[in-house]
Specification:
13 strands; three-stranded mixed β-sheet; 353 residues; eight-stranded mixed β-sheet; single chain
Length: 353
């Protein structure tokens, strides 16, 4: 049983029980189960919690998601009812800023780290974080008073689409993780896709979390960063600790995926000229609203044990290795071009985004 006072790190996630881009509940369950396994291996189950904001699900996620016994012990679900969610998000598809703020506000950790529902957090990161927290490493930054972020690496869709189990994923990361050079926009801290975005809870409270006016698509993380850097040092813990975050890719390489059909957040959200540090005020994260909290009910332990490993033989391991090498080459070249373009904009004193 976890004590509120003993929690050092809260990992917060937002999700919904729907069919967004495939099977989001499998991705969410896999993400939670994977990091829970790492937490228990390090014997940190009393100091790390996982908080999921369930945004507007008709059938709560906690009723249907399958978690391992480890994950069941340290995961809480905060359910925002559909009527309230629909009112707050208005004509947007998903009120992510509200959902993440709800999870942050109701977390207990001294540090709060936002991850996506399909991000795998490795034991290597947790070890590095706790070494820094406990003063067992010589870091060049102030953990307590910094805005901390890291990019993530993409696990190939061809492998993820087979729905690998935890053993498969552990093999992939331990064997091919260092060959994967697909971390995204690591040079551009305010636009980096989230491996993790983490701060001391006092900083979350100081800035009021995500700007709750940004209910549409893109730039919510950019806005958060451009407010934070006015007051706090920025630390790329991907570079400091290593890129220990992996994304379960769910977009087919052949899919010409575009966001142009979505309504975007206003241009001021990506501006560096932010006059207000906390635009939400003291009630950020729906502080005044009572929300239902629950734990998941379904254990997935038996399913995980009985399922055959995808990578059970050497021949099966060739495909994800080749995909990783090809994706790494393609993304490395792409981001070198993006980096040069970024530098030209810096030289011309133009906004990158």
């Amino acid at each position: 049983m976890q004590s509120k006072k003993s929690i050092t790190l809260s990992l917060i996630i937002c999700s919904r029980n729907d069919d967004y881009m495939g099977d989001p509940l499998w991705r969410l369950g896999t993400s939670i189960n994977y990091v829970s396994e790492q937490i228990f291996k390090l014997k940190k189950e009393h100091t790390v919690e996982i908080v999921v904001a369930d945004w507007g699900s008709e059938e709560p996620i906690s009723n249907v998601i399958g978690l391992t016994n480890d994950a069941l012990a340290i995961t809480r679900f905060i359910h925002i009812p559909n009527r309230l969610a629909s009112t707050l998000q208005r004509d947007s598809a998903f009120g992510e800023v509200y959902a993440l703020n709800v999870a942050a506000r109701r977390s207990f950790g001294e540090y709060i780290g936002r991850i996506d529902q399909d991000t795998l957090v490795t034991g290597d990161f947790l070890t590095k974080f706790f070494n820094a927290y406990e003063g067992n490493s010589e870091e060049r930054f102030d953990l307590r008073n910094s805005y901390l972020f890291a990019a993530r690496k993409q696990i190939p869709y061809s492998f993820v689409s087979k729905k690998p189990n935890l053993k498969d994923l552990h093999y992939y990361i331990s064997s091919y993780g260092k060959l994967n050079y697909s971390e995204e926009l690591s040079f551009c801290f305010w636009a980096s896709p989230v491996g993790i975005l983490m701060m001391h809870r006092d900083i979350w409270d100081d800035i009021g979390g995500y700007d709750e006016r940004l209910i549409y698509y893109w730039f919510m993380d950019v806005d958060l960063a451009t407010r934070l850097i006015k007051k706090y040092p920025v630390v790329n813990i991907g570079k400091e600790f290593g890129y220990h975050f992996f994304h379960l890719e769910h977009v087919k390489p052949s899919l010409n995926f575009r966001h142009s059909h979505r309504k975007l957040n206003p241009p001021w959200s990506k501006s560096f000229d932010k006059p207000i540090l906390n635009p939400n005020g003291a009630s950020w994260g729906l502080k005044e609203i009572s929300l239902m909290e629950s734990n998941a009910k379904l254990s997935k332990s038996i399913i995980e044990v009985k399922r055959l490993d995808i990578l059970e033989n050497k021949l099966a391991r060739i495909s994800p290795l080749i995909s990783t090498l090809l994706n790494s080459c393609n993304r490395w070249v792409y981001y070198q071009v993006k980096y040069v373009w970024y530098l030209t904009k810096v030289f011309r004193n133009k906004p990158y985004l």
